[in-house]
Design brief:
The protein has 397 residues and is mainly beta. It folds into 2 domains: 146 residues, Sandwich (Immunoglobulin-like), CATH 2.60.40; 208 residues, Sandwich (Chondroitinase Ac, Chain A, domain 3), CATH 2.60.220. The protein contains 2 helices and 21 strands. A 6-stranded antiparallel beta sheet has the order 11-14-15-21-17-18, with no helix packed on it. It has a 5-stranded antiparallel beta sheet with strand order 1-2-3-8-5, with no helix packed on it. Strands 6-7-4-9-10 form a 5-stranded antiparallel beta sheet, with no helix packed on it. Strand 6 and strand 7 form a beta hairpin. The longest helix has 8 residues. The protein is elongated, with a radius of gyration of 21 Å.
Length: 397
Amino acid sequence: MGLIGHKFILFFLIAITESPTAIAATVYLDQLPSDISAGQTFDIGVKVDPQSIAIAGAQLDISYNKSVLKINSIMEGNLFKQYGTTTIFNGGVIDNSLGRAVNIYGSIIGQKNGQTPGTFIIINATALNSINDPQIQINLENVRVVGPDGNQVYPTPALTPSQQDKETGGSASSTSSTSSTSGAGGGSSGSSGENHTNIEFIEKYGLYIYRNVTTSYRFKEQTNPIIFVNITGNTNPVEITTSVEVLKSTSTLVKSSAPGSVYKNVNIWAGNFGYATPDNIKHAEVIFRVPIAWMEANNINPDSIEMMRYDDGWQSLPTRKIGTHNSNILYESSTIGFSFFAINGKKSTGEMDNYPETTIIQPEDHASLNNYLLVVVFAGIVTSSILIYKIRMPRKK
């Protein structure tokens, strides 16, 4: 992605309902001194100006000149925190050998949103050589911003994927998606085969999935333990419905109950039967919550909480604690497929653990993570059918 002048600006056209007028919002790198010497460490912010559009989540990737600089860390800015809200943030996975940082996302947890410009992320980097123009060494990629309803507000949902391929030469740089929801209500298991009497409710959304771009499905029902399902595609654009069936007990489609103390059983499905394979999905993560009250009542060690998946037997998924929100602790698990899941934990063997108060969620050991959301993280991260229009021109002072 080329840059013009000393500033890097991405302009997004936002579709306004029942009006042909579009509003341009900006995502851009902050200005730095023109000369940075070799060995100098500096911070550079990525700013977002919503242009009076309500926003609640954002995500992006970064590519940079690995021979000129290295990135030390990526920290959360004030963009979402300035509204007095609890946020979830992931500083991404930094690979200085490739000159890339991916899976960067932040989102407001809850119903609040904001329209005030701010700093989304702060990049801490060290110059390996003298740099005349730091901005020109860094590119922002796969930028997406979502509104409080979880739908993508920009880039604009303007064209179909086939139209976008024509405009971009067959290469999509950001997820285009069309969002649809089903109300959280029981009674029908759809085509999953789960006994309908075992289903508390179903929540599902249809979004477009692209190769090497993460689509974040945000689940809004407050009693749903699943908050996000983040899927990075491995194929050309395709619209996929991802659904969560929250169950009353163990799925009727498996042979045994999950071990340990089970908080919730859920079925998660992506697309039609046979879609959720490594050929179609590069990787996926599930962000979920467990009430602190349930852990206290059952003497469960919060560090023992994990998500398990049934595949000819129950298998533990890599699970990490990412923070707290209100009366819940939030966790993230990575999975290679979708089917039958259980959220469980183990009894505490000693004195009861100290359960944290509500905190702003911070990532843990970003460099060791191999995950991606969306926005939400992804959250989000969560989107309507879109086309990104990038107009490369200097940012007005």
